[in-house]
Amino acid sequence: MRKERKTLSDFLSFQCKDRLITLREFLARELSISRRMAKRLIDRGWVFVNEERVSKANFPLSDGDRVEAIIYEPDYTYDILYEDEYIVAISKPPFMPTNESPKSLESTLRRDGYKVRAIHRLDLETTGAVLFAKGDGVFNKFKELFKKKEIGKLYIVIVEGRVDREAFEVSFRVGGKEAHSFFRVLKRGNIATLLQARITTGRKHQIRIHLSMVGHPVVGEKLYRKGRIWEEAIRKVPRCMLHCEELSFKHPLSGKLLKIRAPLPEDFKRVWEKLLYL
Predict the structure, then answer these.
(1) What's the whole-model pTM score?
(2) Strand ranges (DSSP E) for 101-142?
(3) 127-142 residue pLDDT tens
(4) Whole-angstrom Cα distance, residue 54 to residue 278?
(5) Which of 168, 219, 251, 252 could disulfide-link to 241, CB 3.0 to 4.6 Å?
C-alpha cells in the first residue's frame, strides 16, 4: 500500500545590500538559522547567487546580488514493491542512501525487522526500485545477474531543454569503463523534456553524465551542471529528477520472470506538470 507523503518545500529569494559578507553569513542572518545550517543548505546545492548554483560557504557577496535558497524537508517513507522468500524490492525515497549508513534504506529495513542486504544502489537523490537479498547466498546469485547484464533497468528522467530527436544513444566511457545509454522521448515541453532511459551498463552516475554531455542535463543536477540556470522553475527543483521505474529479470531461484515497477513519486509528477506548460 502506498503511503501519503508530506514533503515540505519552499523557495526564497533575497537581495544582498551588504558590501562585505559571505554567503553563509548572509543566509544565516536572512533565514534566522545557524551558520552550520546555512552551510548545509549550500553543501546540498540548494543555494543560488544570480541564477548560478554556488557550493562555497565563504563565497563573497556584493551589493545587489540576488540570493535564492531552496528549503526542503524530505519524507523518508518507503514502499514495498515485491517480496518473496528470497528478496524484497523497495521504492527508495529521495535523499536516503541505499546502504552503508545508519540512515540508509538498508539500515531502516533492518530496524523494521528485515534481515536484508542491498544487491545494488541508486544515487542519493534518485528514487525507484531497489532489490534487497534475504541472505548471502541470494545476494551472490543476484550479483551474478547484474554482472552478466541479465537485469533490465528502465528509468524515467526529466531533462533541461527541448529534445528534438525521438530517440538517441550515448556510448561514452564512464570512470574509464565502457558505458551505453539509450534514450527515448516520452513528452516535450518548451523548457524540459520527459525521457525514458535504458542502460546496459551500470556505471556510477552514468545517465547523469551522458545527458550532461549531450547538452540536456537532468533537472536538479548539481554535479555535472555548470553555469547559470535561467529558468526559475528549474532552479526551484531540489533534487535530480531521475527515477528507476522498472527492473526486469528471470528470478535465479524461483525461475519466475519478474517485472518490478515503481510508480513515479509525487514530487516527480508535480515537477513535470509545472515544467510541461511553461
Answers:
(1) 0.94
(2) 117-118, 127-133
(3) 999 999 999 999 999 9
(4) 25
(5) 219
